[in-house]
Amino acid sequence: MFKIPDHQVAGHQASTGIIGPLIDDSGRFYKPLQSDHRGSQEVEFYTKFSSITEIPNHIRKFFPIYYGTKQIEASDGSGPCPHLVMEDVVSIRTNPSLMDIKMGSRTWFPTASEDYIMKCLKKDRETTTLPLGFRISGFQIYGDKDSGYWKPERKYVLGFSTDDVRVALKKFVSSNSSNDLVAEPDFAFAESVYGGPNGVLAQLLKLKTWFENQTIFHFYSCSVLMVYEKEPALKGHSPGVTVKLIDFAHVIEGEGVIDHNFLGGLCSLIKFISDILDNLPHNSAQNSEN
Amino acid sequence: MFKIPDHQVAGHQASTGIIGPLIDDSGRFYKPLQSDHRGSQEVEFYTKFSSITEIPNHIRKFFPIYYGTKQIEASDGSGPCPHLVMEDVVSIRTNPSLMDIKMGSRTWFPTASEDYIMKCLKKDRETTTLPLGFRISGFQIYGDKDSGYWKPERKYVLGFSTDDVRVALKKFVSSNSSNDLVAEPDFAFAESVYGGPNGVLAQLLKLKTWFENQTIFHFYSCSVLMVYEKEPALKGHSPGVTVKLIDFAHVIEGEGVIDHNFLGGLCSLIKFISDILDNLPHNSAQNSEN
Q: Which of A33, A237, B41, B142 satisfies CB 3.0 to 4.6 Å to B95 for a cystine?
Protein backbone atom coordinates (compact mmCIF):
# COMPACT_ATOMS: atom_id res chain seq x y z
CA MET A 1 0.00 0.00 0.00
CA PHE A 2 2.81 2.48 0.85
CA LYS A 3 5.64 3.13 -1.57
CA ILE A 4 8.64 5.41 -1.99
CA PRO A 5 7.75 8.53 -4.05
CA ASP A 6 8.98 8.56 -7.66
CA HIS A 7 9.37 12.31 -7.93
CA GLN A 8 11.26 13.59 -4.91
CA VAL A 9 14.15 15.95 -5.77
CA ALA A 10 15.31 17.25 -2.39
CA GLY A 11 15.14 16.47 1.30
CA HIS A 12 15.68 13.13 3.04
CA GLN A 13 14.94 10.31 0.61
CA ALA A 14 14.06 6.77 1.57
CA SER A 15 16.35 3.98 0.40
CA THR A 16 17.57 0.67 1.80
CA GLY A 17 18.04 1.15 5.51
CA ILE A 18 17.38 4.91 5.33
CA ILE A 19 14.14 6.36 6.58
CA GLY A 20 12.27 8.68 4.21
CA PRO A 21 8.80 9.72 3.06
CA LEU A 22 6.19 7.34 1.66
CA ILE A 23 3.09 7.84 -0.47
CA ASP A 24 -0.12 5.86 -0.86
CA ASP A 25 -2.57 5.36 -3.75
CA SER A 26 -5.01 7.98 -2.52
CA GLY A 27 -2.67 10.96 -3.06
CA ARG A 28 -1.30 11.30 0.45
CA PHE A 29 2.32 11.93 1.40
CA TYR A 30 3.73 10.48 4.66
CA LYS A 31 6.76 12.26 6.09
CA PRO A 32 8.44 10.52 9.04
CA LEU A 33 8.63 12.80 12.08
CA GLN A 34 12.26 13.70 12.53
CA SER A 35 13.37 12.57 15.96
CA ASP A 36 14.85 15.93 17.02
CA HIS A 37 12.74 19.07 17.45
CA ARG A 38 12.21 19.41 13.69
CA GLY A 39 9.38 16.89 13.41
CA SER A 40 7.40 18.39 16.25
CA GLN A 41 8.07 21.90 14.95
CA GLU A 42 6.55 20.97 11.58
CA VAL A 43 3.49 19.41 13.28
CA GLU A 44 3.18 22.57 15.35
CA PHE A 45 3.34 24.71 12.22
CA TYR A 46 0.66 22.73 10.38
CA THR A 47 -1.58 22.68 13.46
CA LYS A 48 -1.28 26.43 13.97
CA PHE A 49 -1.61 27.18 10.25
CA SER A 50 -4.82 25.10 10.05
CA SER A 51 -6.31 26.95 13.01
CA ILE A 52 -5.71 30.50 11.70
CA THR A 53 -8.91 31.40 9.92
CA GLU A 54 -7.64 34.79 8.72
CA ILE A 55 -5.35 33.24 6.11
CA PRO A 56 -7.24 33.76 2.84
CA ASN A 57 -7.98 30.79 0.57
CA HIS A 58 -5.89 32.12 -2.30
CA ILE A 59 -2.87 31.90 0.06
CA ARG A 60 -3.93 28.68 1.78
CA LYS A 61 -3.73 26.89 -1.55
CA PHE A 62 0.04 27.45 -1.63
CA PHE A 63 0.35 25.05 1.30
CA PRO A 64 -0.13 21.26 1.08
CA ILE A 65 -3.36 20.08 2.69
CA TYR A 66 -2.58 18.64 6.12
CA TYR A 67 -4.25 15.46 7.41
CA GLY A 68 -2.66 15.19 10.86
CA THR A 69 -0.16 12.55 11.98
CA LYS A 70 -0.38 8.78 11.67
CA GLN A 71 1.65 5.82 12.95
CA ILE A 72 2.77 3.69 9.99
CA GLU A 73 5.64 1.29 9.25
CA ALA A 74 8.79 3.29 8.56
CA SER A 75 10.35 2.95 5.10
CA ASP A 76 13.59 1.53 6.53
CA GLY A 77 11.84 -1.42 8.15
CA SER A 78 12.55 -0.16 11.66
CA GLY A 79 8.92 -0.59 12.69
CA PRO A 80 6.00 1.77 13.34
CA CYS A 81 6.84 5.45 13.49
CA PRO A 82 4.73 8.62 13.53
CA HIS A 83 4.41 10.37 10.15
CA LEU A 84 3.03 13.73 9.07
CA VAL A 85 0.23 13.05 6.58
CA MET A 86 -0.32 15.63 3.86
CA GLU A 87 -1.44 16.11 0.31
CA ASP A 88 0.96 14.57 -2.22
CA VAL A 89 1.41 17.45 -4.63
CA VAL A 90 3.52 15.56 -7.17
CA SER A 91 2.82 11.85 -7.50
CA ILE A 92 -0.60 12.31 -9.05
CA ARG A 93 1.25 13.60 -12.12
CA THR A 94 2.46 11.30 -14.90
CA ASN A 95 5.67 12.99 -16.02
CA PRO A 96 6.13 16.05 -13.85
CA SER A 97 9.00 18.49 -14.21
CA LEU A 98 9.74 19.96 -10.82
CA MET A 99 12.14 22.24 -9.03
CA ASP A 100 12.72 22.74 -5.30
CA ILE A 101 14.03 26.21 -4.40
CA LYS A 102 15.10 26.89 -0.82
CA MET A 103 14.17 30.46 0.03
CA GLY A 104 15.92 33.23 1.93
CA SER A 105 19.47 34.55 2.07
CA ARG A 106 19.71 33.09 5.57
CA THR A 107 18.55 29.54 6.34
CA TRP A 108 19.09 29.78 10.10
CA PHE A 109 16.82 31.38 12.67
CA PRO A 110 18.16 33.71 15.39
CA THR A 111 17.50 31.38 18.33
CA ALA A 112 19.16 28.30 16.81
CA SER A 113 22.23 26.71 18.42
CA GLU A 114 25.65 28.11 17.60
CA ASP A 115 26.68 24.86 15.86
CA TYR A 116 23.58 24.87 13.70
CA ILE A 117 24.01 28.56 12.80
CA MET A 118 27.64 28.08 11.76
CA LYS A 119 26.79 24.97 9.70
CA CYS A 120 23.98 26.81 7.88
CA LEU A 121 26.02 30.00 7.41
CA LYS A 122 28.81 27.99 5.79
CA LYS A 123 26.37 26.35 3.37
CA ASP A 124 24.63 29.67 2.67
CA ARG A 125 27.99 31.21 1.73
CA GLU A 126 29.03 28.25 -0.42
CA THR A 127 25.79 28.23 -2.43
CA THR A 128 23.76 30.96 -4.14
CA THR A 129 21.73 31.46 -0.95
CA LEU A 130 23.81 34.47 0.05
CA PRO A 131 24.15 36.29 -3.30
CA LEU A 132 20.69 35.43 -4.70
CA GLY A 133 18.50 35.05 -1.62
CA PHE A 134 17.62 31.49 -2.71
CA ARG A 135 19.25 28.29 -3.89
CA ILE A 136 18.03 25.48 -6.09
CA SER A 137 17.96 22.36 -3.89
CA GLY A 138 17.05 19.92 -6.64
CA PHE A 139 15.05 19.43 -9.81
CA GLN A 140 13.96 16.98 -12.44
CA ILE A 141 13.10 18.01 -15.97
CA TYR A 142 11.14 15.65 -18.18
CA GLY A 143 12.37 15.59 -21.78
CA ASP A 144 10.30 13.04 -23.70
CA LYS A 145 9.59 9.30 -23.78
CA ASP A 146 13.07 8.52 -25.05
CA SER A 147 15.21 10.91 -23.04
CA GLY A 148 13.18 10.61 -19.84
CA TYR A 149 14.22 12.83 -16.95
CA TRP A 150 17.22 14.97 -16.24
CA LYS A 151 17.59 14.70 -12.48
CA PRO A 152 21.06 15.77 -11.43
CA GLU A 153 22.77 14.80 -8.17
CA ARG A 154 22.17 17.08 -5.23
CA LYS A 155 25.86 17.91 -4.92
CA TYR A 156 25.99 19.14 -8.53
CA VAL A 157 22.96 21.38 -8.02
CA LEU A 158 24.27 22.86 -4.77
CA GLY A 159 27.43 23.86 -6.64
CA PHE A 160 25.47 26.13 -9.01
CA SER A 161 26.75 29.66 -9.64
CA THR A 162 24.43 32.59 -10.30
CA ASP A 163 24.75 31.96 -14.03
CA ASP A 164 24.00 28.25 -13.59
CA VAL A 165 20.80 29.15 -11.72
CA ARG A 166 19.80 31.46 -14.55
CA VAL A 167 20.37 28.70 -17.12
CA ALA A 168 18.62 26.04 -15.01
CA LEU A 169 15.53 28.24 -14.76
CA LYS A 170 15.57 28.55 -18.56
CA LYS A 171 16.12 24.83 -19.17
CA PHE A 172 13.27 24.08 -16.76
CA VAL A 173 10.83 25.51 -19.31
CA SER A 174 12.55 24.27 -22.47
CA SER A 175 11.85 21.19 -24.54
CA ASN A 176 15.52 20.47 -25.22
CA SER A 177 16.50 19.85 -21.64
CA SER A 178 19.39 17.50 -22.25
CA ASN A 179 21.31 16.36 -19.22
CA ASP A 180 23.51 19.40 -18.77
CA LEU A 181 23.44 23.20 -18.70
CA VAL A 182 25.26 23.61 -22.00
CA ALA A 183 22.66 23.18 -24.78
CA GLU A 184 20.91 26.45 -25.66
CA PRO A 185 17.40 26.47 -24.10
CA ASP A 186 14.49 26.87 -26.55
CA PHE A 187 12.01 28.36 -24.01
CA ALA A 188 9.22 26.20 -25.50
CA PHE A 189 7.23 26.19 -22.25
CA ALA A 190 8.32 29.55 -20.83
CA GLU A 191 5.10 31.43 -21.59
CA SER A 192 2.73 28.64 -20.60
CA VAL A 193 4.58 27.80 -17.36
CA TYR A 194 6.09 31.08 -16.14
CA GLY A 195 3.65 33.46 -17.87
CA GLY A 196 -0.12 33.90 -17.97
CA PRO A 197 -2.69 34.52 -15.24
CA ASN A 198 -2.06 31.15 -13.52
CA GLY A 199 1.62 30.80 -14.30
CA VAL A 200 4.53 30.72 -11.87
CA LEU A 201 5.15 34.47 -12.00
CA ALA A 202 1.51 35.36 -11.27
CA GLN A 203 1.48 32.91 -8.37
CA LEU A 204 4.75 34.19 -6.92
CA LEU A 205 3.42 37.76 -7.10
CA LYS A 206 0.36 36.70 -5.07
CA LEU A 207 2.67 35.17 -2.48
CA LYS A 208 4.76 38.36 -2.45
CA THR A 209 1.73 40.51 -1.64
CA TRP A 210 0.95 38.24 1.29
CA PHE A 211 4.55 38.25 2.55
CA GLU A 212 4.63 42.06 2.49
CA ASN A 213 2.01 42.03 5.21
CA GLN A 214 1.96 38.74 7.09
CA THR A 215 3.73 38.82 10.44
CA ILE A 216 2.53 35.46 11.78
CA PHE A 217 5.32 33.16 10.57
CA HIS A 218 8.98 33.35 9.57
CA PHE A 219 9.72 30.52 7.13
CA TYR A 220 13.38 29.61 7.57
CA SER A 221 14.76 26.95 5.24
CA CYS A 222 11.38 26.55 3.53
CA SER A 223 11.14 25.75 -0.19
CA VAL A 224 9.09 26.89 -3.15
CA LEU A 225 8.22 23.83 -5.25
CA MET A 226 7.30 24.43 -8.91
CA VAL A 227 5.62 21.59 -10.82
CA TYR A 228 4.20 21.24 -14.33
CA GLU A 229 3.74 18.66 -17.04
CA LYS A 230 4.90 18.97 -20.62
CA GLU A 231 2.48 16.71 -22.42
CA PRO A 232 -0.82 18.40 -21.55
CA ALA A 233 0.68 21.72 -22.57
CA LEU A 234 0.25 20.98 -26.28
CA LYS A 235 -2.36 22.86 -28.29
CA GLY A 236 -3.93 25.05 -25.71
CA HIS A 237 -4.02 22.59 -22.85
CA SER A 238 -2.76 23.90 -19.56
CA PRO A 239 0.52 22.50 -18.26
CA GLY A 240 -1.08 22.42 -14.80
CA VAL A 241 1.37 24.71 -13.10
CA THR A 242 1.56 24.19 -9.36
CA VAL A 243 3.49 26.39 -6.93
CA LYS A 244 3.63 25.16 -3.35
CA LEU A 245 5.53 26.01 -0.21
CA ILE A 246 7.00 22.93 1.49
CA ASP A 247 9.21 22.03 4.49
CA PHE A 248 8.19 23.81 7.65
CA ALA A 249 10.54 22.24 10.18
CA HIS A 250 12.17 25.64 10.82
CA VAL A 251 9.18 27.95 10.89
CA ILE A 252 9.12 30.28 13.88
CA GLU A 253 6.65 32.90 15.08
CA GLY A 254 6.81 36.24 13.31
CA GLU A 255 6.06 38.30 16.43
CA GLY A 256 4.64 41.21 14.47
CA VAL A 257 7.54 41.50 12.01
CA ILE A 258 7.34 40.50 8.33
CA ASP A 259 9.53 37.67 7.04
CA HIS A 260 11.95 40.02 5.23
CA ASN A 261 14.38 37.14 4.71
CA PHE A 262 11.92 35.03 2.72
CA LEU A 263 10.42 38.10 1.02
CA GLY A 264 13.80 39.38 -0.19
CA GLY A 265 14.60 36.01 -1.75
CA LEU A 266 11.13 35.81 -3.26
CA CYS A 267 11.58 39.23 -4.92
CA SER A 268 14.93 38.02 -6.27
CA LEU A 269 13.37 34.84 -7.71
CA ILE A 270 10.54 36.92 -9.21
CA LYS A 271 13.13 39.11 -10.93
CA PHE A 272 14.87 36.03 -12.42
CA ILE A 273 11.56 34.68 -13.78
CA SER A 274 10.45 38.13 -15.07
CA ASP A 275 13.78 38.58 -16.86
CA ILE A 276 13.27 35.27 -18.68
CA LEU A 277 9.75 36.27 -19.77
CA ASP A 278 10.90 39.77 -20.80
CA ASN A 279 13.69 38.40 -22.96
CA LEU A 280 12.06 35.53 -24.83
CA PRO A 281 13.50 35.22 -28.37
CA HIS A 282 10.29 36.37 -30.13
CA ASN A 283 10.14 39.39 -27.82
CA SER A 284 13.58 40.61 -28.79
CA ALA A 285 12.39 43.28 -31.26
CA GLN A 286 10.01 44.62 -28.66
CA ASN A 287 12.71 44.55 -25.98
CA SER A 288 15.25 46.44 -28.00
CA GLU A 289 12.80 49.35 -28.13
CA ASN A 290 12.67 49.61 -24.34
CA MET B 1 34.52 78.76 7.01
CA PHE B 2 34.30 75.04 7.85
CA LYS B 3 32.58 73.83 10.99
CA ILE B 4 31.49 70.61 12.65
CA PRO B 5 27.86 69.74 11.74
CA ASP B 6 25.27 70.36 14.46
CA HIS B 7 22.90 67.60 13.45
CA GLN B 8 24.87 64.42 12.94
CA VAL B 9 23.37 61.38 14.70
CA ALA B 10 25.46 58.46 13.44
CA GLY B 11 28.77 57.66 11.80
CA HIS B 12 32.20 59.03 12.65
CA GLN B 13 31.84 62.40 14.38
CA ALA B 14 34.51 65.02 14.61
CA SER B 15 35.68 66.09 18.05
CA THR B 16 38.98 67.16 19.62
CA GLY B 17 41.68 65.11 17.97
CA ILE B 18 39.20 62.93 16.09
CA ILE B 19 38.67 63.35 12.36
CA GLY B 20 35.09 63.74 11.16
CA PRO B 21 32.90 65.52 8.62
CA LEU B 22 32.72 69.29 8.19
CA ILE B 23 30.17 71.61 6.63
CA ASP B 24 30.41 75.06 5.07
CA ASP B 25 27.98 78.00 4.76
CA SER B 26 26.91 77.12 1.23
CA GLY B 27 25.17 73.85 2.17
CA ARG B 28 27.98 71.44 1.40
CA PHE B 29 29.05 68.47 3.51
CA TYR B 30 32.72 67.38 3.58
CA LYS B 31 33.37 63.78 4.54
CA PRO B 32 37.03 62.86 5.09
CA LEU B 33 38.08 59.94 2.88
CA GLN B 34 38.60 56.99 5.15
CA SER B 35 42.17 55.80 4.78
CA ASP B 36 41.30 52.14 4.10
CA HIS B 37 39.35 51.01 1.02
CA ARG B 38 36.12 52.54 2.31
CA GLY B 39 36.84 56.10 1.22
CA SER B 40 37.79 55.13 -2.29
CA GLN B 41 34.82 52.77 -2.51
CA GLU B 42 32.45 55.63 -1.69
CA VAL B 43 34.10 57.89 -4.30
CA GLU B 44 33.79 55.03 -6.79
CA PHE B 45 30.11 54.66 -5.97
CA TYR B 46 29.33 58.37 -6.40
CA THR B 47 31.32 58.52 -9.62
CA LYS B 48 29.56 55.51 -11.11
CA PHE B 49 26.15 56.62 -9.83
CA SER B 50 26.59 60.07 -11.41
CA SER B 51 27.50 58.50 -14.75
CA ILE B 52 24.50 56.14 -15.04
CA THR B 53 21.96 58.11 -17.00
CA GLU B 54 19.24 55.42 -16.75
CA ILE B 55 18.58 56.19 -13.09
CA PRO B 56 15.35 58.20 -13.14
CA ASN B 57 15.20 61.60 -11.46
CA HIS B 58 12.57 60.54 -8.93
CA ILE B 59 15.14 58.00 -7.66
CA ARG B 60 18.19 60.22 -8.07
CA LYS B 61 16.69 62.66 -5.59
CA PHE B 62 17.03 60.04 -2.82
CA PHE B 63 20.82 60.43 -3.09
CA PRO B 64 22.77 63.46 -1.88
CA ILE B 65 24.11 65.57 -4.74
CA TYR B 66 27.80 64.81 -5.24
CA TYR B 67 30.35 67.55 -5.94
CA GLY B 68 33.52 65.45 -6.27
CA THR B 69 36.44 65.41 -3.85
CA LYS B 70 38.41 68.30 -2.41
CA GLN B 71 41.55 68.68 -0.30
CA ILE B 72 40.73 70.67 2.86
CA GLU B 73 42.12 70.94 6.40
CA ALA B 74 41.01 67.93 8.43
CA SER B 75 38.80 68.57 11.46
CA ASP B 76 41.39 67.07 13.84
CA GLY B 77 44.06 69.56 12.83
CA SER B 78 46.21 66.91 11.18
CA GLY B 79 46.55 68.98 8.01
CA PRO B 80 45.11 68.80 4.50
CA CYS B 81 43.21 65.64 3.64
CA PRO B 82 40.93 64.67 0.73
CA HIS B 83 37.20 64.94 1.46
CA LEU B 84 34.10 63.81 -0.40
CA VAL B 85 32.01 66.89 -1.09
CA MET B 86 28.26 66.47 -1.19
CA GLU B 87 24.99 68.18 -0.51
CA ASP B 88 24.38 68.81 3.18
CA VAL B 89 20.87 67.44 3.60
CA VAL B 90 20.45 68.51 7.23
CA SER B 91 22.25 71.65 8.28
CA ILE B 92 20.08 73.96 6.19
CA ARG B 93 17.29 73.15 8.66
CA THR B 94 16.74 75.13 11.85
CA ASN B 95 15.48 72.47 14.23
CA PRO B 96 15.44 69.18 12.35
CA SER B 97 14.27 65.91 13.82
CA LEU B 98 16.18 63.12 12.16
CA MET B 99 16.70 59.40 12.27
CA ASP B 100 19.42 57.26 10.71
CA ILE B 101 18.32 53.68 9.93
CA LYS B 102 20.92 51.18 8.75
CA MET B 103 19.29 48.89 6.23
CA GLY B 104 19.46 45.16 5.58
CA SER B 105 19.48 42.07 7.77
CA ARG B 106 23.13 41.60 6.80
CA THR B 107 25.60 44.50 6.90
CA TRP B 108 28.52 42.55 5.39
CA PHE B 109 29.11 41.76 1.75
CA PRO B 110 30.11 38.27 0.57
CA THR B 111 33.67 39.17 -0.51
CA ALA B 112 34.63 40.95 2.74
CA SER B 113 37.44 39.62 4.96
CA GLU B 114 36.62 36.92 7.49
CA ASP B 115 37.40 39.27 10.39
CA TYR B 116 35.10 41.95 9.03
CA ILE B 117 32.31 39.44 8.39
CA MET B 118 32.48 38.02 11.92
CA LYS B 119 32.56 41.50 13.46
CA CYS B 120 29.49 42.59 11.46
CA LEU B 121 27.63 39.32 12.03
CA LYS B 122 28.10 39.69 15.79
CA LYS B 123 26.71 43.23 15.72
CA ASP B 124 23.86 42.21 13.39
CA ARG B 125 22.88 39.49 15.88
CA GLU B 126 23.14 41.79 18.89
CA THR B 127 20.96 44.50 17.37
CA THR B 128 17.61 44.45 15.55
CA THR B 129 19.40 44.08 12.21
CA LEU B 130 18.80 40.33 12.17
CA PRO B 131 15.18 40.15 13.37
CA LEU B 132 13.92 43.36 11.69
CA GLY B 133 16.13 43.72 8.62
CA PHE B 134 17.22 47.17 9.84
CA ARG B 135 18.51 48.93 12.94
CA ILE B 136 18.22 52.48 14.16
CA SER B 137 21.77 53.86 14.25
CA GLY B 138 20.91 57.19 15.83
CA PHE B 139 18.33 59.94 16.01
CA GLN B 140 17.54 63.34 17.40
CA ILE B 141 14.00 64.49 18.08
CA TYR B 142 13.28 68.17 18.54
CA GLY B 143 10.75 68.89 21.27
CA ASP B 144 10.37 72.66 21.60
CA LYS B 145 12.39 75.73 22.54
CA ASP B 146 12.52 74.70 26.18
CA SER B 147 13.11 70.98 25.94
CA GLY B 148 15.39 71.16 22.90
CA TYR B 149 16.52 67.86 21.43
CA TRP B 150 16.38 64.29 22.59
CA LYS B 151 19.56 62.82 21.15
CA PRO B 152 20.41 59.58 22.93
CA GLU B 153 23.86 57.99 23.06
CA ARG B 154 24.70 55.60 20.25
CA LYS B 155 25.16 52.70 22.66
CA TYR B 156 21.62 53.16 24.03
CA VAL B 157 20.11 53.18 20.55
CA LEU B 158 22.02 50.09 19.41
CA GLY B 159 20.57 48.24 22.41
CA PHE B 160 17.01 48.72 21.15
CA SER B 161 14.68 45.72 21.08
CA THR B 162 11.96 45.29 18.45
CA ASP B 163 9.48 46.99 20.78
CA ASP B 164 11.89 49.88 21.42
CA VAL B 165 12.18 50.43 17.66
CA ARG B 166 8.41 50.50 17.37
CA VAL B 167 8.16 53.09 20.15
CA ALA B 168 11.05 55.19 18.79
CA LEU B 169 9.33 55.37 15.38
CA LYS B 170 6.19 56.59 17.15
CA LYS B 171 8.03 59.12 19.33
CA PHE B 172 9.81 60.42 16.23
CA VAL B 173 6.48 61.85 15.02
CA SER B 174 5.09 62.93 18.39
CA SER B 175 5.15 66.32 20.06
CA ASN B 176 5.76 64.91 23.53
CA SER B 177 9.11 63.37 22.79
CA SER B 178 10.59 63.55 26.25
CA ASN B 179 14.01 62.03 26.70
CA ASP B 180 12.98 58.39 27.02
CA LEU B 181 10.77 55.75 25.45
CA VAL B 182 8.30 55.66 28.34
CA ALA B 183 5.88 58.58 27.84
CA GLU B 184 2.92 57.65 25.62
CA PRO B 185 3.45 59.12 22.12
CA ASP B 186 0.73 61.51 20.89
CA PHE B 187 1.36 60.96 17.14
CA ALA B 188 0.92 64.71 16.53
CA PHE B 189 3.08 64.65 13.37
CA ALA B 190 2.41 61.07 12.21
CA GLU B 191 0.08 61.97 9.37
CA SER B 192 2.03 64.96 8.12
CA VAL B 193 5.43 63.20 8.29
CA TYR B 194 4.73 59.52 7.59
CA GLY B 195 1.49 59.95 5.60
CA GLY B 196 0.41 61.92 2.54
CA PRO B 197 1.68 61.98 -1.03
CA ASN B 198 5.14 63.30 -0.08
CA GLY B 199 5.45 61.66 3.31
CA VAL B 200 7.98 59.05 4.42
CA LEU B 201 5.76 56.08 3.51
CA ALA B 202 5.09 57.34 -0.03
CA GLN B 203 8.81 57.97 -0.53
CA LEU B 204 9.83 54.55 0.82
CA LEU B 205 7.31 52.89 -1.51
CA LYS B 206 8.92 54.67 -4.49
CA LEU B 207 12.30 53.38 -3.37
CA LYS B 208 10.83 49.87 -2.99
CA THR B 209 9.59 49.85 -6.59
CA TRP B 210 13.08 50.77 -7.74
CA PHE B 211 14.75 48.13 -5.55
CA GLU B 212 12.46 45.43 -6.94
CA ASN B 213 14.08 45.96 -10.31
CA GLN B 214 17.50 47.58 -10.00
CA THR B 215 20.41 45.16 -10.28
CA ILE B 216 23.23 47.72 -10.55
CA PHE B 217 24.18 48.16 -6.90
CA HIS B 218 24.01 46.25 -3.62
CA PHE B 219 23.92 48.73 -0.76
CA TYR B 220 25.51 47.03 2.23
CA SER B 221 25.54 48.99 5.48
CA CYS B 222 23.80 51.94 3.85
CA SER B 223 21.32 54.09 5.79
CA VAL B 224 17.94 55.65 5.20
CA LEU B 225 17.94 59.15 6.73
CA MET B 226 14.56 60.69 7.59
CA VAL B 227 14.43 64.42 8.31
CA TYR B 228 11.62 66.84 9.07
CA GLU B 229 10.93 70.00 11.04
CA LYS B 230 8.19 70.48 13.58
CA GLU B 231 7.65 74.21 13.47
CA PRO B 232 6.64 74.64 9.82
CA ALA B 233 4.18 71.79 10.23
CA LEU B 234 1.67 73.99 12.01
CA LYS B 235 -1.57 74.95 10.28
CA GLY B 236 -1.18 73.34 6.92
CA HIS B 237 2.49 74.08 6.37
CA SER B 238 4.55 71.17 5.19
CA PRO B 239 7.08 69.71 7.64
CA GLY B 240 9.49 69.36 4.72
CA VAL B 241 9.96 65.62 4.91
CA THR B 242 13.24 64.44 3.43
CA VAL B 243 14.19 60.82 2.88
CA LYS B 244 17.75 60.18 1.71
CA LEU B 245 20.06 57.25 1.33
CA ILE B 246 23.49 57.90 2.83
CA ASP B 247 26.79 56.05 3.45
CA PHE B 248 28.01 54.19 0.40
CA ALA B 249 31.37 52.91 1.61
CA HIS B 250 30.18 49.29 1.24
CA VAL B 251 28.28 49.42 -2.02
CA ILE B 252 29.23 46.64 -4.43
CA GLU B 253 28.12 45.82 -7.99
CA GLY B 254 24.79 44.05 -8.28
CA GLU B 255 25.85 41.83 -11.19
CA GLY B 256 22.31 41.38 -12.48
CA VAL B 257 20.80 40.40 -9.12
CA ILE B 258 18.49 42.64 -7.09
CA ASP B 259 19.58 43.84 -3.64
CA HIS B 260 17.25 41.45 -1.78
CA ASN B 261 19.02 42.23 1.50
CA PHE B 262 18.24 45.97 1.36
CA LEU B 263 14.80 45.35 -0.17
CA GLY B 264 13.75 42.90 2.56
CA GLY B 265 14.69 45.41 5.26
CA LEU B 266 12.96 48.20 3.37
CA CYS B 267 9.73 46.17 3.21
CA SER B 268 10.04 45.56 6.95
CA LEU B 269 10.50 49.29 7.68
CA ILE B 270 7.54 50.08 5.40
CA LYS B 271 5.41 47.66 7.42
CA PHE B 272 6.41 49.38 10.70
CA ILE B 273 5.49 52.82 9.30
CA SER B 274 2.24 51.55 7.73
CA ASP B 275 1.23 49.95 11.03
CA ILE B 276 1.67 53.29 12.80
CA LEU B 277 -0.47 55.09 10.20
CA ASP B 278 -3.12 52.33 10.25
CA ASN B 279 -3.45 52.48 14.01
CA LEU B 280 -3.53 56.19 14.77
CA PRO B 281 -5.84 56.93 17.73
CA HIS B 282 -8.51 58.70 15.64
CA ASN B 283 -8.52 55.79 13.19
CA SER B 284 -9.37 53.23 15.83
CA ALA B 285 -13.12 53.02 15.01
CA GLN B 286 -12.31 52.52 11.37
CA ASN B 287 -9.67 49.91 12.19
CA SER B 288 -11.91 47.83 14.38
CA GLU B 289 -14.19 47.34 11.39
CA ASN B 290 -11.41 45.74 9.32
A: B142
